Amino acid sequence: MSGSSHARAYLLAGAALLALTGATPAFAQAQSDTPAAPAVVADPDPDTGGSQLQDIVVTATRRETNLQKTPISISVLNTQGLQDRHVLSLFNLADGTIPSLRIATFEARQSALTIGIRGIVPYDQNQTARDGGVGVYIDGVALGKTQGLNAALFDIERIEVLKGPQGTLFGRNTEGGALSLVSKAPTGVFDGRITAGVGNYGSYNTDVHVDLPSFYNVALKLDGVYQHQDPTVKDPLTGSTGWNYYDRKGGRIAARWKPVDGLTADFAYDYAKDENTPQFSQLTNYNPNGYTVGAFSGTTLVLPGTTTACGGTITAAQATAGRQVCIAPKAPLVGVHPDRQKVADVGVPQQPSVDITHGFSSNLRYQIDPSVELRSITAWRGVSTDQWDNSGGPERSSFAPSSNFSRYSLSFLRQHQFSQEFQAVGSVPQFDYVAGAYYYTEHATEYAATPLSNLWNADGTAYTIRSPIPGNANAISGANSGYQQYDPSCNNTLATTVPQFANSCQFITRASQASDHNYSLFGNLTFTPAALGDVLHITAGGRWTKDKRHGTLYVVNNRADLRVAGTVSPFAFQNSISRFDPMLNVAFDATRDVHLYAKYATGFRAGGANDRSLAFNAFGPEAVKSYEIGSKMDFWNHKARLNLAGYIMNRSNTQFDFDYYDTNGSSPTNGSHIEQTINAGKSKIRGIEADLTVAPVQGLTLTGSYAYTYWKAPSAVNPLTPGAPAQQLYIVYTPRNAASGAIDYNVPIGNGDATVRFHLDGNYASSQYSFQLEPTKTEASFIMNGRLALADIAVSDHNKVTFAFWVRNLLDTTYVYRRSAANSSPVYNYGANGQLVSTSYGGILGDYANFNPPRTWGLEATARF
């Protein structure tokens, strides 16, 4: 598309947006600066009886500022917004509550989330030596790994979504932006509330929050949560857990100590355990391209009625000799389901994955004098994931007589991190400043396996479950045996040479470890010249970063040749980068209620290595240059607010993953997912974002948000098939158009002893890609959520009770959020001499897909005491 075509597209999108936001009141919280919950002040407008919009305080600049006067694009979702949408974990935001924020499962797993902003979306960061492009922070502490992000949320005061590179103040891998969760701090005043609820699919939840009175200048706050839901897709295998199940529990204790004037010390410890199963992967079509369906003569696939062999992948010589392409027949037990299944066709072993997250933080702030505050943020965090992911069953592998099927993806990962940040924040006449230093280190280990858990009979009319115990007749043996408890008779070299594998047998498929060390210095300085009437604000900032990472891959697909003389010969990598990321922001207060800004910033994502590769090949960092302009406007006597932003981002050395599933039954890596990551080239991302909030009459708030995202990714040669031509790459989970809208209406009843609260939101996203190497798109989506509450019923001077009915996916909309068509067509990949160099995917069955969760609903009661 030419530059003029881009310009016309932006103008048309902007015109449509302005017409839409001006004509319809029903788009919800999102992007730039509008809270998802109604933002109304208590005092009504005396002229119209409507309500004015209240100021929103954010900490995006490492100081408390009015969101409307903060010259960057931010979305804020506050406590009421989370409650109205019944958001229990971050995965609940996958419906598009904030259009520029995209959340999806990695693969189908709830145990790991993919989080992206403005088209910077990782495909596979679920590894020991990889990072995402969006930083996730809890109370200022960066989280190093994707695993565990779907844990239950504790008492969250607000979620801030910072758009675009945040390399200056949130510097660790925030090239796309930052997702900052801010917890409620202890107040020192006795207060408490307890919520209990039940819902469909056997769900129930409860949370307890208690603020204790201050004692010797120490205030304590206790939080506890428990959330449960039964599977929404059942597993026919007795004793196995179905899909989309979760059981989450956790607790947090926070203390605030103010020993002397000016010094505040916050300490917190949290622990959470999340047991979950993946979303179900089902077959949505079979042989969509109409290829010949073969038949089996013994174990040979032949053309029906002949003895002529055929297959989904053939060499050039075989094609010349007349061999034809055909695909394997579908097992009779496997059905085609274009709509969401409730019960799987075939039962497979499935037990919940277990994610455990824990951490301690110390946040110290000392106000030396009005011009400077010194801060220290110290944190230790860890996560462990015991993954049991059997999401596909027979949906992603071809049928063959007496063959193994159903890839059981097993992984045990442990990660520990430590971070220390120092800041000096303050103001002097005409200048505001932030300066600091940051250190981060982590160590992660993982061992994993991909056994095939089931065995077909001769004609696909029945199956058996393979034993996980070595030595049994139907044992999961060889390279795909999974990991079992250590058996001395198996001569396990790993168990005797590498301490972290002391309890494993030699049957693990891969094992790796990696460490990262990150050092940085940063600062921002804002100049507000008094001679111009304090309306111009010029901010210059920068961050110097040194990032060093190294690691080893101890086991590669259980290859025996890597074990030499009783030791392990690992593949190793190391990389290091030193760089400076600048930022320049010019803001202008056109009026008291109209604020304009222009911003330039850069950011980067560190390099690493792919532990699903065959040799732990290292890849370098990618970097983004971002240009953004925006406006923030209040009007109609502060009963309406419109925020607009437009941006251009150019990404260089884009990290892309090339992969295939080896489905060759005779291959030593059969059933394995092989990947290699390269720096593929340049990506272009362009976008427009808008938010509108209107409070036309007392008690009524209408919010709307829209995000338009255009991107162009490069083409590159798959390093796993070096003789193949370059192929187009795709950015995942980034719809061209996304919008969200909400209606909130509050009506006091009686003498103000209670309030009726009504909330309804709708969230739209156009179709998008879910695999970096496939041109197949998901389905467009529109999801509605609602809540009706009789709130704050006064039962005494201090006690109040709220009763609420909530529903997620109100219309029970069904859409595919992740789809692969790689199983639908044969692969023709030839080397220089005409030989077949890849057997990836090979025309197996048809498209497999993951659907969004079905409609869920429930009743809740909350008591404040």
Computed structural class: mainly beta
Task: Report low-confidence residues grouped into runs of 5 or more.
Answer: 1-43, 469-506, 826-843
Fraction of residues in H or I helices: under 10%
The fraction of residues in strands falls at over 45%
Shape: globular
The end-to-end span amounts to 61 Å
Identify the quaternary structure here. Answer: single chain
Give an overview of the whole structure.
By secondary structure, this protein is mainly beta. A hairpin with an 8-residue loop joins β27 and β28.
Please give the structural blueprint.
Layout lengths: L2 H21 L16 E5 L6 E3 L3 E2 L6 E2 L7 E5 H6 L16 E6 L2 E9 L16 E5 L2 E2 L13 E8 L13 E7 L7 E9 L4 E8 L6 E12 L16 E12 L5 E14 L4 E3 L11 E3 L2 E3 L13 H5 L32 E17 L2 E18 L14 E4 L1 E20 L2 E19 L2 E5 L6 E3 L27 H5 L12 E18 L8 E21 L6 E2 L2 E2 L2 E19 L4 E12 L2 E2 L8 E2 L2 E14 L4 E13 L2 E7 L11 E7 L3 E12 L5 E13 L2 E2 L10 E2 L8 E13 L4 E12 L15 E14 L5 E9 L7 E5 L27 E4 L4 E9 L1
Parallel strand pairs: 8-11
Antiparallel strand pairs: 1-2, 3-4, 5-10, 6-7, 8-9, 10-11, 12-13, 12-49, 13-14, 14-15, 15-16, 16-20, 17-48, 18-19, 20-21, 21-23, 22-25, 23-24, 24-27, 25-26, 27-28, 28-31, 29-30, 31-32, 32-35, 33-34, 35-36, 36-39, 37-38, 39-40, 40-43, 41-42, 43-44, 44-45, 45-46, 46-49, 47-48
What is this entry, summarized?
The chain has 865 residues and is mainly β.
Can you tag this structure with a few keywords?
single chain, 865 residues, mainly beta, 22-stranded antiparallel β-barrel, 4 helices, 4% helix, 48% strand, disordered N terminus
